[in-house]
Design goal:
5-stranded parallel sheet; 14 strands; alpha/beta; single chain; 6-stranded mixed sheet; Rossmann fold
Length: about 400
């Protein structure tokens, strides 16, 4: 079993809050992690709210939760029963009065928007939110880095017996989202239209959002495009990286960049089934960039601000991280270990004066490039960010 780096964070949050929400896309490993937490505590109960039998147990939720008030109650796919949040609030408040202040509920959800938009402030001050991404670089051996990039981080895809079996699994996951999961949230989106959109986004991985062009290609209006994109973001399948706003007196790009968050899904949508095929595909550089961005954002200290910088005169930084106590980090992303930053990176650094300048590459060596730029491997920079995250209050 692969040890997940979020495990101690879940334990810590349960020690501090009555409820913890563990968010992540389907099949990212939330249920496995929750069972590990429950086994370590030695006194837990698990309910899958997509199971009719388990939903039946909550016909009278107040009575059921009262029976298990001294146990950790794990509720999987909790967004399936939004009315349950008000019940949880009452149970938490009663528990506080009787000395049960923390570690009551672990809520698993695969749709961040649904959970974060629950009625009003039902659990405000009573819940901590954590996100479990699919498998990450630091959770695996260094020798598995390219395999992780190709297959993506969904455990069943990464651990498949062959590239072909991994591809079949990812294609089935995409079909499940298109045909079952997205319609289950009440969206009246034709599966074929959404597949076309998703495939377009994979082709344009890391490209600027152009709603009018997407709408033209799909023959739908801009409002509908935005609704489709919002749904993919809520399902934690798509990331909008916002442009960095700075008072530098220059014309800056205002559109966000869009990334399909899992590299394995990018490759499945484009029919890239092997590492050799990836190396010869036009999406190679953008795929690498998207994977690096996702890797670094998943380990960056909480409360970090992120974005990219691009001006009309060609100044550009692939990723900016503004971290508490660390200042602004500028990150250039290149796959080749012998690559050098573009001229636009240096121009952008002159505009923003970052505290640190990095060039992330596909190798393992770290070395100075001059002009305060440090070349570094992805794993090494991810490790540094995770170290800072663990030290943050």
């Amino acid at each position: 079993m692969i040890e997940r780096n979020l495990f101690p964070w879940v334990q810590e949050a349960l020690a501090d809050f009555p409820a913890v929400a563990l968010l992540g896309p389907r099949q990212a490993g939330k249920t496995t992690l929750a069972h590990q937490v429950g086994e370590q505590r030695g006194n837990s109960v698990y309910l899958d709210l997509e199971s009719p039998a388990d939903r039946q147990k909550l016909t009278a939720p107040e009575a059921y939760l009262a029976l298990h008030e001294n146990r950790l109650v794990i509720l999987d796919e909790v967004q399936q029963m939004p009315a349950l949040f008000q019940v949880l609030r009452g149970s938490i408040d009663r528990g506080r009065r009787s000395g049960l202040a923390t570690g009551r509920f672990l809520l698993l959800g695969s749709a961040s928007g649904e959970l974060l938009r629950q009625p009003g402030e039902s659990l405000a001050g009573r819940i901590a939110y954590l996100e479990l991404a699919p498998l990450q670089v630091l959770e695996l051996d260094a020798a598995q880095q390219n395999l992780l990039w190709l297959r993506g981080g969904f455990p069943n895809s990464f651990l498949a017996g062959s590239d072909a079996k991994s591809m079949v699994w990812r294609q089935n996951l995409i079909s499940t989202y298109l045909e079952r999961d997205i319609p289950s949230y009440g969206a009246r989106i034709p599966a074929e239209t959404l597949r076309r959109l998703w495939t377009m986004l994979a082709h344009q991985q890391g490209g600027l959002l152009d709603v009018s062009q997407l709408g033209k290609n799909l023959m739908i209006d801009a409002k509908t495009v935005h609704r489709y994109l919002d749904m993919l973001v809520d399902l934690m399948l798509l990331r909008r990286l916002q442009p960095w706003h700075s008072n530098v007196g220059k014309r800056l790009v205002k559109s966000p960049k869009l990334y399909v968050r899992d590299s394995g899904l990018v490759h499945a949508l484009l029919g890239i089934s092997s590492h050799e095929a990836l190396l010869s595909h036009p999406v190679l550089g953008n795929s690498w960039e998207g994977w690096v961005v996702e890797t670094l954002l998943n380990v960056a200290p909480r409360n970090s601000a992120s974005g990219f910088y691009r001006s009309s005169n060609g100044a550009e930084i692939d990723l900016l991280l503004d971290m508490p106590g660390q200042g602004l980090w500028a990150i250039e992303i290149k796959r080749g270990a012998s690559s050098k930053p573009r001229r636009g990176f240096y121009a952008a650094c002159e505009d923003l004066k970052p505290a640190k300048r990095w060039m992330v590459h596909g190798g393992r060596d770290s070395y100075p490039l001059g002009d305060e730029v440090q070349a570094i491997g992805l794993r090494a920079l991810a490790d540094e960010l995770q170290r800072l995250r663990s030290q943050a209050p």
